[in-house]
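Researcher: I'd like a candidate sequence for this fold, 356 residues long. If you have to choose between options at a position, lean toward the conservative one.
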């Protein structure tokens, strides 16, 4: 009997190990597809490749059918307040999961603490930001029409590129006089490169130099770099509208064709940034910000009046030693989001507060 019990325990142990290995393989495969969408997602879409992500709203990692019946099943305790979370480049909806608690996200915490019903967007990050913005506006219109009860409040949380897609959706939604736009109360930007990403600018310069050198192999190197997706190239200056890139050379050297658009009227906008070091004045943080996005770009202030964004003083919080990806699942960041959700209107204070 003892021998049989020991065999059973060993079987259970091996089954557990195999399950963990299988889970790890699945996650690696999912990550690979996310990266592929980010790098060449526009090409995958144009070729109608099955690896291209369609834009869908998710809940508990399952795509949602936007009908009243389906929403009642997926959200039996649905409320009149909705929270939409939008991931960034080469990611998917799982980026919001806490490392050690995969069921915990900003959305699940806001549902528990403040009664928001969470929805998670997944989309092809290789496509133009403006294309994704228009599609997001359409998806939110569908959600608004299918919502089983009157939808009174929407908050939007966008990470990195997701913040730009959110702004684009708000602008197109306003242009179309979409009903959902009128319900947006707060918009949160987590490390979003509103005024451009330095890495994409650097690659643009390197590609241009390689193609300018009269050697076949350097030109080939430049051509290969130029194969990166439209979504990545839009990050160079933070393009939000079709007019920014239509009939323009996407590989021109640091040519900014960006059109200025206003923040969504009637909504409060908040910025959260991270740093690589404890001291925000450290050269590493000054040059690299949170690792991918510099603070001036995320805060919309580069001393360029034509493109600077008039975020309200006091609506910016900086978190030292919180990197770009960590912004999506940081307890401290969540507490700040929750605090701002509870406030009707933050009082005037310094433009950027440093988290302790």
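Model: Candidate sequence:
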């Amino acid at each position: 009997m003892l021998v049989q019990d020991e065999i059973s325990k060993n079987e259970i142990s091996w089954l557990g190990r195999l399950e963990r290995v299988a889970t790890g393989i699945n996650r690696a495969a999912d990550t690979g597809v996310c990266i592929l969408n980010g790098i060449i997602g526009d090409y995958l879409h144009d070729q109608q490749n099955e690896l291209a992500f369609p834009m869908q709203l998710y809940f508990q990692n399952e795509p949602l059918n936007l009908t009243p019946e389906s929403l009642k099943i997926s959200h039996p305790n649905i409320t009149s307040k909705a929270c939409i979370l939008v991931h960034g480049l080469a990611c998917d909806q799982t980026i919001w999961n806490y490392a050690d608690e995969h069921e915990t996200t900003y959305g699940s915490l806001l549902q528990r603490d403040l009664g928001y019903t969470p929805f998670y967007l997944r989309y092809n990050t290789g496509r133009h930001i403006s294309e994704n913005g228009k599609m997001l506006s359409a998806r939110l219109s569908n959600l608004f029409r299918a919502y089983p009860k009157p939808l009174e409040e929407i908050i939007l949380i966008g990470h990195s590129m997701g913040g730009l897609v959110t702004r684009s959706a708000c602008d197109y939604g306003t242009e179309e006089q979409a009903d959902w736009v009128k319900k947006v109360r707060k918009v949160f930007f987590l490390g979003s490169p509103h005024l451009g990403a330095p890495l994409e600018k650097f690659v643009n310069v390197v590609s241009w130099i390689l193609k300018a050198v009269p050697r076949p192999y350097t030109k080939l190197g430049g051509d290969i770099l130029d194969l990166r997706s439209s979504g990545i190239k839009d990050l160079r200056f933070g393009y939000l509208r079709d007019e920014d890139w239509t009939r323009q050379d996407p590989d021109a050297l640091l040519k900014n064709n960006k059109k200025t658009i206003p923040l969504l009227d009637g909504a409060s906008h908040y910025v959260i940034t991270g740093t690589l070091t404890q001291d925000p004045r450290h050269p590493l943080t000054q040059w690299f910000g949170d690792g991918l996005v510099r603070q001036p770009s995320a805060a919309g202030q580069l001393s360029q009046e034509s493109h600077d964004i008039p975020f309200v003083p006091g609506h910016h919080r900086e978190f030292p030693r919180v990197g770009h990806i960590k912004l999506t699942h940081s307890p401290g960041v969540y507490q700040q989001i929750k605090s701002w959700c509870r406030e009707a209107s933050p009082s005037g204070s310094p433009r950027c507060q440093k988290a302790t």
